[in-house]
Amino acid sequence: xxxxxxxxxNTADSDAMNTTPYAAVVTPNxxxxxxNAPLLRNITSPAxxxxxxxVQLKELCREIRTTLLNYGHAHGGHIGxxxxxxxxxxxxxxxxxxxxxxxVFDVSHQSYVHKMLTGRALSYLEPQHFNDVTGFTNPAESxxxxxxxxxxxxxxxxACGIAKTRNxxxxxxxxxxxxxxxxxxxxxSLSSGVAFxxxxxxxxxxxxxIVIFNDNEMSIAGDFGGMYGPLARLRASGGTAQPxxxxxxxxxxxxxEAGNDVDALIKAFEEVRDIDHPVVVHIHTLKGAGYxxxxxxxxxxxxQLQHTTxxxxxxGIPSTNNVLHDEPWHSDHCNLSDHEPHEGQCEASHWxxxxxxxxxxxxxxxxxxxxxxxxxEPRFASEPxxxxxxxxxxxxxxxxxxxxxxxxxxxxxTGITESHAVAFAAGxxxxxxxxxxxxxxxxxxxxxxxxxxxxxxxxxRVTVLDFLGGLSGSDNTHSGAYDLAMFANIPQVTxxxxxxxxxxxxxxxxxxLPANAENAPTGSVVIRVPGEGVLAAERDATLRPxxxxxxxxxQPVDSVFSDMLSWRINQSGSQVAILGLGNTYPLAERAAxxxxxxxxxxxxxxxxxxxxxxxxxALESLRKNHALVITLEDGQLEGGWGEKVTSYxxxxxxxxxSALNPRVLNFGATxxxxxxxxxxxxxxxxxxxxxxxxxxxxx
Amino acid sequence: xxxxxxxxxNTADSDAMNTTPYAAVVTPNxxxxxxNAPLLRNITSPAxxxxxxxVQLKELCREIRTTLLNYGHAHGGHIGxxxxxxxxxxxxxxxxxxxxxxxVFDVSHQSYVHKMLTGRALSYLEPQHFNDVTGFTNPAESxxxxxxxxxxxxxxxxACGIAKTRNxxxxxxxxxxxxxxxxxxxxxSLSSGVAFxxxxxxxxxxxxxIVIFNDNEMSIAGDFGGMYGPLARLRASGGTAQPxxxxxxxxxxxxxEAGNDVDALIKAFEEVRDIDHPVVVHIHTLKGAGYxxxxxxxxxxxxQLQHTTxxxxxxGIPSTNNVLHDEPWHSDHCNLSDHEPHEGQCEASHWxxxxxxxxxxxxxxxxxxxxxxxxxEPRFASEPxxxxxxxxxxxxxxxxxxxxxxxxxxxxxTGITESHAVAFAAGxxxxxxxxxxxxxxxxxxxxxxxxxxxxxxxxxRVTVLDFLGGLSGSDNTHSGAYDLAMFANIPQVTxxxxxxxxxxxxxxxxxxLPANAENAPTGSVVIRVPGEGVLAAERDATLRPxxxxxxxxxQPVDSVFSDMLSWRINQSGSQVAILGLGNTYPLAERAAxxxxxxxxxxxxxxxxxxxxxxxxxALESLRKNHALVITLEDGQLEGGWGEKVTSYxxxxxxxxxSALNPRVLNFGATxxxxxxxxxxxxxxxxxxxxxxxxxxxxx
Lengths: 699, 699
Description:
2 copies of one chain form a homodimer.
Chain A: H1 22-25, H2 38-41, H3 46-51, H4 57-74, H5 79-84, H6 86-95, E1 102-105, H7 112-120, H8 122-125, H9 155-173, E2 181-186, H10 193-205, E3 209-215, H11 228-236, H12 245-248, E4 252-256, H13 262-272, E5 278-284, H14 298-312, H15 364-376, E6 386-390, H16 401-407, E7 411-413, H17 418-430, E8 434-440, H18 448-457, E9 463-467, H19 483-487, E10 494-496, H20 501-511, E11 525-528, H21 532-539, E12 568-571, E13 575-580, H22 585-599, E14 604-607, H23 616-621, E15 626-636, H24 642-651, E16 663-669, H25 679-685, H26 690-697
Parallel strand pairs in A: 1-2, 2-3, 3-5, 4-5, 6-7, 6-8, 8-9, 9-11, 10-11, 13-14, 13-15, 15-16
Antiparallel strand pairs in A: 12-14
Helix pairs in contact in A: 6-13, 9-10, 15-20, 17-18, 22-26
């Protein structure tokens, strides 16, 4: 799906451009190049967009597009969806009166243009200001931003709430400080259940509410779902064909084919401004519009846009292969540092890494994700029921395009539907299949009820691959610091926290054993995919365990699985025991080494391997000669794992002289949201450092 | 909406009946009356349904309906949805071949008839066997049951999973142990987001999948949502009108107007049996069909059914006022002991209490729910933005029909949409309104991500009324034992656990203060509605606090709110401190009284009032002369509250001679699912008894 930026692009003429030729901004020094964008530079608020002569709007769009492209190469970001939304965002601010009119951007990664037009243009124009703004709307930045949002599908519900309050004020007083309420949502986001809930409630509520449906025919890795066929027919018919899903939810509907034509959009938006009932304005846009692709000029893109929307469509060529597919920001570069929000198409232009990051080693999500897929793939031939399920986030988790092609029916992209994905997996398990559901920790929050009900209560043999769990430098909407509190407190869930690639593969092999296999788990297994701490230790020989603990290459994968839940005591010592859960295990090793070298203490070092049950034998064994037990975890302490260890000793107090009741100290994260704080800084903030642990022992 | 059981009912002739006249089974001794149902009694498996002469099927339906009515009066249950599904269930087992064909009942409370036909008829016929089966499908009971389900909307996703595995087996081996896959879902359930996610994935997947859409025009309190208008037009057109929402999801579609005509249903099901692609069979049924209403015979109901489906419809009378609305199982009897699942219409016949329960005191949900609504209602006139939101579960939480009528736009039923409801509330808060979202604790699991993102991360001033939180005798799918681990570990959430009606009102008043009011909370507030433990203490003078703690009537509601988060030390003692959270606070009082009388210990007694932050002043004050601190909570210990107290002392160890490091003992629930275990038994199991606490002190 998607992909209309056709072959004509590379034939374009760059002479016509009055902006920096795009070829220049792809150089490695791109970050140092300032874009010449005189119109954009002068925009300090939406009033400037309104005041601009109409004839200049196309030029403004060209400047914005150039700015986005430059920014993408230099800084990285969700460039594709923003490129598609350039004209629509200009039109929104031309027609509507933010902040009196309220614009809610779904998932909000497509708000860069909005930010440029609401006083933040310099944050995209000048490298020294690139980090002044976040990648999502943020009320702390601007009165024009409604919410911090990084998960899909809630904009309609949020807009309903704003509109509801406006309606109530008008009923009570005849007036309101709030005018039009506009939700902007993409076709990828629309697969989220909550978006349908919102659509279903919008018509029921009534009153002014404008849903801009940004249809770029792309989700992260293609649009998946039965509704996209009828949507394509809707587009092909110019918005007249039935069934029309928006009508089916009782909503009024308009269609704008020329979704990258600023004049057409202005006209359409003017027609619905101040409308007295909910309406969907379906705009057909081109994600990644202007990306250099096989051309090297922004102007060529603009020419192509005109061509595509005006000519190709008329010629009945709605969709051809997208040349962006082979570009450097395609799947292999949709990654990691991103905490990939849900919308858009990764393969094409969903997330762009800065050029400077190219060629760097793979991040843990991709590294271990590929490792897992490589382990599962050979089994497909003999295990028809083995299925990998991704709720629309494959690329960033190492589920490559190539793997998916080879996997065929063994891979399912369910769209952005974590709830469905987990219930679907439970159905597969009920039928005797072996489902593996993979996505990012914070997105799994969407499936919390299905984890409880369909998965755990039913003891469904579902394997969950939990990516980006634990601490990271993530933004606040995608942090994995809460995953353990979410998963590990659900009854009947087993959550594994491997500390090496080898353990990870062992855990995956065990979790996906056939139900009738010896030692197979009796229910669901969540595997937290290792993060930076583990991967760094695996890559750097100087960080390897001093205790003889196993690492990736040291041993073959287990084939017996007789003892997957007992803790691994890698070094037996005295006085102090350090229990390092998951990603903090390498830190436990290093702290033990420091205690040895600096204080002559041989600490006991334990890799608990899982966090859903306590190994009471191990805990009891520590009573003999350990006065202090230290727990380390790279997630929130409250509701987390260390507290369970503390509570164990507190509630199993020994009154004999010979058995100690060790003190327990817990190290982990504070209950808070953090926004793009580097991991090293978080570790320091939470005391997850060798120095801090050593000094705690000596207090 | 709904309601087709017309005025003709009370004119029917009971002479034609060969079953017990319905008048007989409404007597108080109903539970002792066995139904004469010779056909049903002889059915031991679906094979018997298939073997039955076709002419007997209507008689079988009549017997089943009589049995359901008797069972409803004697035992209580989700009678309404089952009455509507009598013919459809008989037809399903006549046409399909369970368990080779797999039937997944959404939310599964409409599975009583299915249970009768799959070897469990005696559990509905004979009072001594009424408790042999659960109220939901349960694989532990029968190979014909696919899942334990009590939350709505997941049947399509689950069925997709089963079908996917069958498809894979057929691809690999040419055959499968699984035949047709059938999902049965109601129109109320269809408002759940996950149901739309399932629909969207069904067509994408392809292969045999049959969705029986049981459209009885009712949810729990009416169908709410824009899709219900087009659905009504679809019915009125005999299934031909567009927009057709199922077509919009890419699905094939059939319509059966006569959804209570067993022959018509058999014909329709036979037509789709072994179909090679997903199809929706939309059947128009009558919820509560056969309920005595204004008549008194089952036969009259049957006559009416025939009339309604054959004649009234032809006369263009699709929907009249439902006489069931005024019946004794209407809203005031939709309650409490139920843990009300999501589907069906409470007001009409969603949940029926046994006759024996009539006239008993209100349960805590209704009691405190009504109290909250009574406190909010007078504010509506002056606070246009104050809105109570219920995701389709008003009646059981004391949000009465009468209140809703009076509340007008201040009350919104969003349909069965917890995710939308919470995001909608965040939108209201963003616009300056005051949203109060109310539903049952376990249903709030559906909104976990919205609690994290839209609510907490955005510091939206949303008030959440958390009903049935904590321990209860609930079934396993509706237990509130996990609510604290869910809410209280989310950053920036304040969770209050009032211990009296007076505190509850204080908490509600504080949470809903205008944003600019002095001492207003800066973000979201979850209030756990008090449960049995607190209500019992409020009702029974002998259980009132000995320490002088406040109860409902003792003081006016706070108007200062200067100190809502500090713990309340109701009795200052020594040696032992007992911290009783929420519903366990009365137990703390009683244990302290026992320690005083039996051991002469004056314990410190603390009501923490909230569970999201520790009152470190209070904790530090205990160091002076308390060697033991006891925490009580009526929910899961893991991820819960007591562990936070334990960890506080462990991590704030005092090295001075004068400050004790008290031992902490935590009492609360094990991490497990429990199914209909009486509260008193759970309390005993978890050591939440006076005797156990007193003996722990003396160990």
